[in-house]
Automatic annotation (TrEMBL):
Keyword Transmembrane helix applies: yes
Keywords associated with the record: Membrane, Transmembrane, Transmembrane helix
Domain of life: Eukaryota
Protein name: Cationic amino acid transporter C-terminal domain-containing protein
Location of the Cationic amino acid transporter C-terminal domain: 521-571
Organism expressing this protein natively: Apolygus lucorum (Small green plant bug)
Length: 590
């Protein structure tokens, strides 16, 4: 009996570590119909939503004119993750984004955890948009009639939940789910229209900002609101805190990466769209913050009330411009909602198509060539979250899911860059180079192979794991013990030793031979860029509050139950060996 238990345990562990085999197919169940412009606009709408009309004002009051620097730093940090996604899209153009990349590179269990978390991220992120959109449409076009009615009809006095059941947000969620079900080309054409109107509005706002710019607003003296005056009145620390806040404004570009089975020539179009959309977002946020802080003094508390542009334009005598802002914000939130719903449905479809969650969700409609079941089911669940939850308390979980995905993609880039599909085993390499097959001799001989082999790949994998652990330790010291770093010698010495070890690990990775695979897009420099990306993302995850981690833990437990009771036994990778044996038997019979 103990022997059977041990055998069963090893079997389960083996199943958890199995990897997905990827084979690029020109023809897929989904329709390859999206061009570079469709993909780029999909990324732009995900990043430049209604928040662009709100965040600039709120950040200006906290950081001052230096919020321009905050946006640029955040854009650079986001670009690090973006180029990692771009290389993966060039290598493995498939649906599922970071989930699929992890499944192919690391293994099934890690991929499921990431995919399950991405599903939650998409659900909460889209629910927040639905709730915000409900309030915006109600306030702008219906004078708050819907909110007043629902507050009286379906009040809710439950802690951590909304004050009333917002069924209007559920209705809006279903409308956008229906639009996504209609077809990839149809929904992206509508998204392109929303993006075009939004970008036109932003361009006009920037022009108005240039016309009414006053450089005196960048050199104001100390104000009653606090600060030392000048361009960075609250100091460099506030600029960096602002950059952390701004980072989340750029999240959403990974929606482009889920279109691997619907993009034309995805190995080229997806990397181009990823880089272009992130660059566009960085230019928009940087230019808007620049012109906004030149237009009006940063210390005005009215800028943080949620309607900074209408307020400033009214003060400048441009009352007509507030209607322009209303049109732009409406199109921005519509486009963001559409792209979020699109991305969410593709993540659910990808996980279901691998058999890790209920396979019925992977069915493709023959007419529209879209995953209607995945779209409708995820839409209903998201709508329910929007109805009953106070999404403000859950929004940090979207950040956690996004940062985990970014970190995992950077780790996968490190692993793949130092692997070749047909690399030698340790025994083959040692025989060819040293005339001996002993592992001890190989490990004690300098690596001189010009191409990756099993030994060098193993070194990189172990070093990458150690780099993540060290990033956690160093990040924790910076996040939670920053005061001790400058006052306690012992803490300073420990931090210095960890930093030296971290650098040593990076050097070890860098000394290994890289793959010579010819790709349409490659990250440079490696391993420096992925390592910086990992460290920055780990640090931001550590800064999230403990309640976010508790909620994540509960969601993770639910996911583990589903995986171990359903997914691990229905995985298509579980069935693959059986199918191969059947084919081999048929060939032998012939």
């Amino acid at each position: 009996m103990p022997h059977l238990r041990k055998e069963f345990l090893w079997r389960v562990l083996g199943m958890m570590g199995r990897k997905k085999e990827f084979e690029y197919k020109e023809e897929t169940e989904l329709k390859r119909i999206l061009n570079v412009m469709d993909l780029t606009f999909l990324g732009i709408s995900s990043m430049i939503g209604m928040g662009v009309y709100i965040m600039v004002g709120d950040l200006a009051t906290k950081v001052g004119p230096a919020c321009v620097i905050s946006f640029l730093i955040a854009g650079f940090a986001c670009a690090l993750s973006g180029v990692c996604y771009a290389e993966f899209a060039a290598r493995i153009p498939c649906s599922g984004s970071a989930y699929a990349y992890s499944y192919i590179t690391i293994g099934e269990f890690v991929a499921f955890i990431l995919g399950w978390n991405l599903a939650l991220e998409c659900t909460i992120g889209t629910a927040c948009l639905a709730r915000a959109m409900s309030g915006y449409v109600d306030t702008t076009f219906l004078n708050g009639a819907v909110e007043n009615f629902l507050k009286n009809a379906v009040p809710m006095n439950i802690p951590a939940m909304a004050s009333y059941a917002d069924f209007f947000s559920f209705f809006l969620m279903m409308v956008f789910a229906a639009l996504v079900c209609a077809g990839a080309k149809e929904s992206t054409m509508l998204n392109n229209l929303f993006v075009a109107v939004n970008m036109t509005t932003i361009s006009i706002i920037i022009v108005l900002g240039v016309i009414h710019a006053d450089f005196a607003n960048w050199s104001l003296p100390a104000t009653p609101a606090g600060g030392n005056g000048g361009f960075a009145p609250f100091g460099i620390s506030k600029v960096m805190e602002g950059a952390a806040t701004c980072f989340y404004a750029y999240t959403g570009f990974d929606t482009v990466a889920v279109t691997g089975n619907e993009a034309k020539n995805p190995k080229k179009s997806i990397p181009i769209a990823l880089v272009s959309s992130i660059l566009c977002a960085a230019i928009v946020y940087g230019t808007l913050s620049l012109t906004f802080t030149l237009m009006w003094p940063y210390y005005d508390p009215e800028l943080a009330t949620g309607h900074p542009y209408p307020y400033v334009f009214a003060q400048l005598g441009l009352n007509w411009a507030k209607y322009l802002v209303g049109v732009g914000a409406t199109c921005a939130v519509f486009g963001c909602m559409l792209s979020s719903t699109f991305g969410m449905s593709r993540i659910v479809y990808a996980i279901a198509d691998d058999g890790l969650i209920f396979e019925g969700l992977s069915k493709i409609n023959a007419c529209t060539r879209t995953p209607i079941r995945a779209t409708v089911v995820s839409g209903i669940f998201t709508g329910a979250v929007a109805v009953i939850f106070n999404t403000d308390q859950l929004v940090d979980m979207t950040s956690l899911g996004t940062l985990m995905a970014y970190t995992m993609v950077a780790i996968c880039i490190l692993i793949l860059r130092y692997e070749d599909p047909e690399m030698e085993t340790i025994e083959e390499y040692s025989t060819r180079n040293f005339g001996s097959g002993t592992l001890n001799k190989v490990l004690n001989t300098p690596v001189t192979s010009p191409v990756p082999n099993e030994m060098t790949s193993s070194i990189v994998k172990a070093s990458a794991l150690l780099a993540v652990i060290l990033a956690l330790m160093i990040g924790s010291m910076i996040a939670f013990f920053s005061d001790l770093l400058t006052s306690e010698p012992a803490v300073m010495i420990v931090a210095a030793l960890l930093a030296i070890l971290f650098v040593a690990v990076v050097v070890v990775i860098g000394r290994q031979p890289q793959s010579k695979a010819n790709l349409s897009f490659k990250v440079h420099p490696v391993p420096i860029l992925p390592i910086i990306c990992i460290f920055f993302n780990v640090y931001l995850m550590l800064k999230l509050n403990h309640k976010t981690w508790i909620r994540f833990g509960i969601w993770l437990v639910i996911g583990l139950v589903i995986y171990f009771t359903y997914g691990i036994w229905h995985s298509k990778q579980q069935l693959a060996p059986r199918e191969k044996k059947t084919e081999e038997k048929k060939k032998e019979e012939v």
